[in-house]
Amino acid sequence: MVAGSGSLADRIEASHWRIELPEVEPAVLEAAVAAFTAADEIQVERMTKQGRRTFDARAAVMRIDVVPPAETPSGVPGVSCAILELVVRQVTPSVRPDDVLSGLRVVADLVPPVSPRVIRLAQGTLTAQGAIVDPLDADRDGATIGEH
Question: Could you tell me the superkingdom of the organism this chain comes from (predicted)?
Answer without folding.
Answer: Bacteria
